[in-house]
Amino acid sequence: MTQAATAQAPGAYRVMWMSTIAFTVMFAVWLMFGILGIPIQQELGLSDPELAWISAVAVLNGSLWRLPAGMLTDRIGGRRMTIFLLAVTAVPCFFVAQAHSYAMLLVLAFLVGFAGNLFSVGIAWNAAWFTRDRQGFALGLFGAGNVGASVTKFIGPALITGTAGVTYFGFIEGGWRLVPVIYSVLLVVLAIATFLVVPRHDRMSGASKPIGEMLAPLRHLRVWRFSLYYVAVFGAYVALSAWMPKYYVDNFGVSLQTAALLTATFIFPASLLRPFGGWLSDRFGARRVMYLTFGLMLVTSGVLMMPNGHIVINHADGSATQHLAYAIGLTQVVLLVFLLGCAMGIGKAAVYKHIPEYYPDNVGSVGGLVGMLGGLGGFFLPPLFAYTKVWSGFPTSTFFVIFILTAVCFVWMHVTILRLHEKHAPEIARDIDDSTPAVSERVPS
């Protein structure tokens, strides 16, 4: 019996809360250039593409290493990996405040991107400490650290404005440069707190497992299907978090501050509902929750990609009349985007509920691959949003991309389930969402 399947240890909740706090701050660091970019662009005279690359390289590096980070967590424990990533990320984060050229800032932004890899570490770490009936909630609560995407949006503008022109300790400048210094101090404090708070005797589900055995599940088509699901619910979340302020400004003429607040109404449910999604997955089964997720995403993105229109009827005499004209305003758009965020928040937990059920001994490698591809979705989707807008001429094409991506996921999932029904009926109808290892192992996908 693996460690992940043994009785839940008393230190499990210390691991869960400490890893969640650390991940929240690391996520804020990972995406901090979304807000810092504006004053950086003004100070260094950067073009829009140059500015975009600063955020892009951070997102890229925060995704590339999720697979090896998850595997290392299974092998040497989440405690060591978390402390290491917190301490290592603090160094380039501090030196961001000392950057005075675009090239240096680009290098430092790439290195700061290591912060994003804490996700796969925390997933594997929490899965090793919690029993299967509580893994959905634990992984969901940890994943709610995505709310860190809003931290800089709230504290950044006021801090930048209030400290501009001030120098601290003779070498720390105020304004936007103070934000990464504060974050670097927080990261060091959290590294020390993790060392002191969580149990020193860690759980490592793959401590003696050969690398080949850890990578073996990656040959399963099911793992890549889970990865595509995560591109839809997480990669699209990261992309929209960065894209929506510009969308609101360009399409509704609101101020940047208002656009940031409206974007927060998407970020908060997409992050904070993740524990609820984990609880739902524990209670009703992850696949049922995925149906709910994709269904709601299809409805909301489908309406958002066509926010106004009408039906034209051509008559026999050559005349034409318009009927059923409709148009939705800013309030309705914000509400629909909020519901889209709710679906993503619930769905992110459901995707990761699958992993310890199907692969209890390989959560690090499987979770790392799923997280890596989901994060890369956050890197590739914004350019795709931009190109489809140029190609189509419609600003709402952003949601067309989300709709198509979600539809592909939904169809693939449903076709897979129909095939399972055909192969294993009638018992599969009863057991498809029963998370027992026997069912999980004997039902291929």
UniProtKB/TrEMBL annotation:
Membrane topology of the entry: Multi-pass membrane protein
Matches recorded under SUPFAM superfamilies: MFS general substrate transporter
Keyword terms, alphabetized: Membrane, Nitrate assimilation, Transmembrane, Transmembrane helix
TM region positions: 21-40, 52-69, 81-97, 103-125, 137-160, 180-198, 223-244, 256-277, 289-306, 326-351, 363-387, 399-420
GO CC, alphabetical: plasma membrane
Subcellular location: Cell membrane
Primary subcellular site in the record, as a coarse category: membrane
One MF annotation (Gene Ontology) recorded for this entry: nitrate transmembrane transporter activity
Domain Major facilitator superfamily (MFS) profile: 14-424
Biological process terms in GO annotation: nitrate assimilation
Pfam families: MFS_1
Keyword Membrane: yes
Tree of life domain: Bacteria
Family named by the database record: Belongs to the major facilitator superfamily. Nitrate/nitrite porter (TC 2.A.1.8) family.
Protein name per the record: Putative nitrite extrusion protein
Organism: Kineosphaera limosa NBRC 100340
Source organism phylogeny: Bacteria, Bacillati, Actinomycetota, Actinomycetes, Micrococcales
